[in-house]
Amino acid sequence: MALTLEDVDRIAHLARIDITPEEARATLAQLNDIFGMIERIEKVDTDGIEPMSHPLGGTQRLRPDQVTETDLREAALRNAPAAEDGLFLVPRVIE
Question: Which residue segment(s) compose the domain that 25 sits in?
Fold first, then answer.
């Protein structure tokens, strides 16, 4: 798909970009190069190739699944104006 100068001018107008004719020609060449690369990529046969989550086949480093914090419930409930059975008591809002 090749773009024309009119296409570049229309895109610049839609984006509210003030572009000179020289910039439009340079942009046209760059966009047509990009579309050419996309067309070449689309022609690559990918049948039988599994999608990858990482381009280099790497894996995400994860920390060990271990408890690192102690139970702070009692300390948090000490700051509450009212608590019962390990829960905060709050005033009734809806009657």
Answer: 5-42
